[in-house]
Amino acid sequence: MHAELQYDLTRKQRLLPHIRVWGVTQIFVIIGLIGVGAAVMHGSWRIAPFVALLVLWGGRGYITGLINVILVKSHHMEIRIEDNGLEFMAGKDRWYIYLDGLTAIRNLEKTVWTIQHWNGTIVNIPKKDLTEDVLNFLRDCLRRIPGCRFREGNRSKFNAGIVAAIRCADLGWMSTGRHTCPTFGSTPGEVSGRVRP
């Protein structure tokens, strides 16, 4: 299966999946930011920097995603789907994720499909650009991973490694090659990463 797609994502197409992927975790980031504001208002300068650093570290993926949505009106995407992986542009860098690491293909916004990888990478593809054949191919790749079938509705036994990876993704460990997932002790670049020119 090979497919090459080029499209632009609007703010709404990026914001709604971002909020829904983070789910309940974003509440802790928001409460933490409110806590920092309250500490500053009460003059607790010793506590405020500690809480601010903790919130920024724990919620950096959430905060970075929101800043991207606010500052970038339209995000151009170039994606290439191959037999074993998905290559995409992130800024000026090309990234590659293996399809055997997919954890979910979800309908989080009415005009886009959201593809999630175990390392926290999220790729949104407009429904009008993704053919039924390619979508079925991606779903077949997802079904081959026993621990991820619950995302498709079948609550079979969880694969402990995949569940831990999803926890890392929920904590905001993004595929930047600079962060290390505390559960696995490896960087995303060891499993997927930049495509060398």
General description of the model:
The structure is a single chain. Helix 1 packs antiparallel against helix 4. The two termini are 23 Å apart. The relative contact order is 0.16. The chain contains 6 helices and 8 strands, in the order βααααββββββααβ. It has a 5-stranded antiparallel β-sheet. The chain is an alpha+beta fold. The model is unreliable at 148-197 (pLDDT under 50). Helices cover 39% and strands 24% of the residues.
What are the main properties of this structure?
elongated; five-stranded antiparallel beta sheet; three-stranded antiparallel beta sheet; about 200 residues; single chain; alpha+beta
Portion in beta strands: 15-25%
Poorly predicted sequence stretches spanning 5 or more consecutive residues: 148-197
The N- and C-terminal alpha carbons lie at a distance of 23 Å
Derived structural class: alpha+beta
Average pLDDT reading: 74
Gyration radius (Cα, Å) is: 18 Å
Largest sheet: 5 strands, antiparallel
How much helicity do the residues have?
Answer: 25-40%
Strand-helix topology:
Blueprint: E1 3-9, H1 11-22, H2 25-41, H3 47-58, H4 60-71, E2 75-81, E3 85-90, E4 93-98, E5 102-109, E6 112-117, E7 122-126, H5 132-143, H6 160-170, E8 193-194
Antiparallel strand pairs: 1-2, 2-3, 3-4, 4-8, 5-6, 6-7
Helix pairs in contact: 1-4, 2-3
